[in-house]
Amino acid sequence: xxxxxxxRDLLVAKHLDGLLVSDPVNVSYLTGFTGxxxxxxxxxxxxxxxxxxxxxxxxxxxxHNSHLVLHQDHLLSAASEHATGTxxxxxxxxxxxxxxxxxxxxxxxxxxxxxxxxxxxxxDAELANIKQAITIAEAGYKHVxxxxxxxxxxIQVANDLDQFMKSLGAxxxxxxxxxxxxxxxxxxxxMASDKVIEAGDMVTLDWGAVYHGYVSDxxxxxxxxxxxxxxEKIYHVVYEANLATTKQMRAGVLGKTINEFAxxxxxxxxxxxxxxxxxxxxxxxxxxxxxGAWGPYREVPQAVGNVETVxxxxxxxxxxxxxIEDDILITADDPIVLTSQAPPTxxxxxx
Length: 351
Ligand SMILES: [Mn+2]
Hints:
Creatine Amidinohydrolase, Chain A, domain 1, hydrolase activity, binds manganese (II) ion, Creatin/AminoP/Spt16_N, four-stranded mixed β-sheet, elongated, six-stranded mixed β-sheet, alpha+beta
């Protein structure tokens, strides 16, 4: 069933006469359009694609399931003029200023997770793009291990990795590449800085590639030369936590159950106070998407076709940190780890 048909089924279930889709990622998911500054008004028997004349050619090349409506003023104001009945808008995306621009006879109703809910289950073409985004990112990691040397700054490593992935066909990076070395590795999301990488540093690399609009998201931690026994032990605990948690990731299991499992695992090893974030999140067209970050309140069960990260970590201030993140495909049976297995012991880069 087409994506628009599945959305229309949701509209019937929600007693909506239409939905104004203003999140450009959702517009792209429903229509194939890869530009911006566009909106979609989906009703029971029509789909209006509202944009301006800059995108006329691109519309005709890419969009085959909607009618073009050109506007010259305000995008959402123009779109709203075509809406009648009870029409939903995307509450998580529309700003208050945009909302005040809506006009016409429709009764506007906030909605959440309609299109983004559909996006949670990936089809084969989407999976192929995610897998290629992973292949490119993993080639980038090999490049980093081959080229990183003491004396380089974190920013140099990040820029080199980003450029290498683009040379392999990535359109960009999934997010700003994280390179956190030495004591900075205890910062879970330490952006690459001008810190110089030194012998003995732990290096946490969190990066991803975008391929045909789909992302990968991987974290690896390695050491420059030689690690202390404590950091080797922390690596081992995180590695085992990653493996054990991955085994819990299957259809029907609640996100919060998986999150609790990972936290209990690391708690039992004595590092609970040093694991302060959720255990994973969905990926796809966005770096964080459904079924949602696995906080303690995630009551959403995993479904076949979800692609999610598993990313336990331990960060000890003044000592260092380790995170190991993989991308997992949920099935009815054992999960499929889309990324290559991290090694059971710390990777040592010779210095
Ligand atoms: Mn992640």
